Every structure is written in structure tokens, then in C-alpha cells.
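R.M. (postdoc): so does anyone remember the format we settled on? I'll just put the C-alpha cells first.
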């Protein structure tokens, strides 16, 4: 499993342009708003979900989006979902609570976790995600983030929580 230093080194080796921000540990959107300081770009909340058939999903949406799990689950045909337990976070994504982000999908070697990126984030110029640890935030261009994920064989579904549809998929 990758750790934050290894992820950052991969980004550097591949010559991706990004900024790293250090801050206190952020566990919630409220923590982030209070403690992160000024960081340009869109900020996210990342929901790691599981359905009754043991399918796993990572949904990344803008930090202030009001997400109704029942509506999202129904519109994306995910089944009856709930937040996955911490043991699954470690098993599938190799992170702890508060450190969930799409970068953790690099630890999902079998691509068991299906990734959904909300349209609001997709349409942002800059995205901010934790690099496998919640005391750091990486800022990078949205298009470069998508390129990085595709390069690492991760599929991305762009969805609209308002329209309840998948708009496009990459990877």
C-alpha cells in the first residue's frame, strides 16, 4: 500500500504540477473550513460507501454539497448503501478515517471500488484532496488530476447529484 510520501514522489517523478499544503489533521468539512487556511480551488468531501452486496463506492463531491445517500444511491443504481466500516477503508484504500480521497484508489489494486466525481468538482479549475493522510492537502489542476488517475488505471464516473445521472466516464 502506498503512503503519502510515496504518492507525492510518484507525482513528482511523473512531473505533475501540484502544491502541497500542511495543516492540522482534518477529519470533517467543519475542521477543514476552520483549520486549513487559505487554499485555492475546490475542496471536497469524500464518501466511502458499501452496499448489501459488498460493492464499494467512493463518491467525491464539493464540500458544501448536500448529499442525500438514498437519492444518490437510487439514481446511480448503487443499491442500498451505507458508510463502509473503517476496516474496509484500510483493506481497500489503505487509509484511516479522515484521510479518504480519490488518491487512495491507487491502493485498490483490483479496482474493486467504483469512483464517482461530482460535476461541481469536475468543472472546477483546481481540486484539493488529501494525499493518503489528513495533515496534508494537494492542489492540482482538475484536468491533470483526471489524467493522473487514468494513467494509473482508475475509472472515473462524472455525475450530477442534482440531475441524478452519470454525465461521462473516463478510464
Amino acid at each position: 500500500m502506498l503512503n503519502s510520501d510515496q504518492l507525492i514522489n510518484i507525482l513528482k517523478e511523473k512531473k505533475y504540477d501540484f502544491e502541497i499544503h500542511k495543516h492540522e489533521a482534518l477529519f470533517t468539512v467543519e475542521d477543514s473550513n476552520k483549520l486549513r487556511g487559505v487554499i485555492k480551488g475546490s475542496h471536497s468531501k469524500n464518501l466511502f460507501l458499501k452496499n448489501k452486496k459488498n460493492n464499494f463506492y467512493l463518491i467525491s463531491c464539493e464540500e458544501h454539497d448536500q448529499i442525500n445517500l438514498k437519492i444518490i444511491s437510487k439514481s446511480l443504481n448503487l443499491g442500498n448503501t451505507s458508510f463502509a466500516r473503517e476496516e474496509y477503508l484500510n483493506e481497500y484504500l489503505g487509509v484511516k478515517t479522515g484521510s479518504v480521497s480519490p488518491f487512495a484508489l491507487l491502493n485498490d489494486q483490483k479496482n474493486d471500488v467504483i469512483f464517482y466525481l461530482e460535476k461541481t468538482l469536475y468543472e472546477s479549475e483546481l481540486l484539493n484532496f488529501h494525499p493518503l493522510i489528513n495533515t496534508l492537502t494537494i492542489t492540482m489542476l482538475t484536468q491533470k488530476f483526471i489524467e493522473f488517475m487514468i494513467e494509473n488505471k482508475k475509472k472515473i464516473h462524472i455525475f450530477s447529484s442534482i440531475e441524478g445521472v452519470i454525465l461521462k466516464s473516463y478510464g
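R.M.: ...and that's the designed sequence above, right after the C-alpha cells. Also worth knowing: The mean pLDDT is 91. The CA atoms of residues 29 and 142 lie 20 Å apart.
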